[in-house]
Amino acid sequence: MRFSTKLEVPVRAGRGERSRGQLLEAALVCFSHDGLEGASVRVIARRAGQNVASISYHFGGKEGLYREVLSQAVRRVSEAADMMRRELGEGSVQDPDEAIELLKRFFGSVFRVLIADKQGILLAPLIVREQTRPTAAFDVIYEGGMRRTHETVSRLVGLAIGVSAEDPVTVLRTHSLMGQFLGLITARETLLRRMGWKDFSGHNADAVMAVVEENVSVLLRGLRQQKKKKAGKS
Amino acid sequence: MRFSTKLEVPVRAGRGERSRGQLLEAALVCFSHDGLEGASVRVIARRAGQNVASISYHFGGKEGLYREVLSQAVRRVSEAADMMRRELGEGSVQDPDEAIELLKRFFGSVFRVLIADKQGILLAPLIVREQTRPTAAFDVIYEGGMRRTHETVSRLVGLAIGVSAEDPVTVLRTHSLMGQFLGLITARETLLRRMGWKDFSGHNADAVMAVVEENVSVLLRGLRQQKKKKAGKS
DNA sequence: GCTTTATTCAAACGATCGTTTGACATATTA
DNA sequence: TAATATGTCAAACGATCGTTTGAATAAAGC
Q1: C1' (D3) to CA (A190) span, angstroms
Q2: What residue spans of B39-146 are helical by DSSP H?
Q3: B174-190, pLDDT tens digit by residue?
């Protein structure tokens, strides 16, 4: 146990706390690279400079460690969405153009955290893998941030186009928009090869981000105009 | 060996040919579900009604079987792109609107093969996984169809917007467009849950497809108009 | 017929997997 | 200081992995 038996407060940053941290750090790298089943506890332990048994001791086993890693990852990624939701909650966003601007900013944040950032190379595959083939830890991601994020983006998409956020088509469009990242993350290697890039740093990230932002604004504005036309006709 | 030692022609559909087929069929299911490393040769063999050793015998090992499965999968998916390229080669496509129409048709084909079709549930994860984390068999997919497909779509995107197909931005936009599928495939489970669907059949597929097609036309038309405006200003 | 080739199959091989064990070291409590 | 948690570590456990072996079976060539 990491807590005193008498008080419910951590007495001191126990010596185990350091081990836990090192295990989590090593596990993030391994799970990101090889997935839950593919990663080996022995490799994780060696990379962390710890004994194999320490994983069972500190996290109850491989799966417990995995859940903890996922939890930390999704917390970091969701920060952008949480900030966006706060702005949205304050009611400062009213007209479509503002919504589009906010969405562009949001996509920029996610892009930086998930793709351009060095740590993102570790976070993204974790989350993507859990989408493709959910393990028992899927809820850690979904309830830990994914659901909130999707709902918030849906509201903004609805605002931008001028439709209800609950409309199934709006939900589909939200998925489609956010799917851009899944596409970028998923085809990361292919895209890098095709462009002849080494990574998504500097100019490269700017170029990709520009396309993403352009897509968001052109698409949403186009859909809004299309809706206006139809409304005018009927 | 499946061939006569004297003639380079298969003497008869050897008894082994049947085993090979059953192994390939079972392997497609297993590799699609669990990936190259995750799938077990014993499970594959049992599902195929064959002995474990038959995999090494017929395909030289697990990896050989995997390559063969990949090869067949990419061949099936690339059919849509090949048809599109033939039309493009005949020079019947000239103006942007035609290009957009052809792209919409192409995306429809890919969508049906990769997402709506029952077999697609098997093909898609195979290809996506190879994108996220390329194995030694990556070239089977890339050279087996992916490259041709991307080049063809790039040409059409260039035609639709009125820019060069070799422009890096055009390549990025092509990736972004095709990434829609990666997004749909990757988040398949999440999307189904969110929409309360069981699968992508019937109305569900139509609804998703409608959004995808709308995205393609609205985005490309919007980009074309944007380009016209800019050209007019300068 | 006999020989050769193609195919199937149960068994065993060595390697690696996640987890558990029990001794040992270290820190906290009384 | 004695007693008690807390943390570390080498070793072993049983299970599963992909591959290989060698004998048994079936078809084809001569």
Answers
A1: 62
A2: 41-48, 53-59, 62-89, 96-111, 120-132, 138-141
A3: 999 998 888 888 898 88
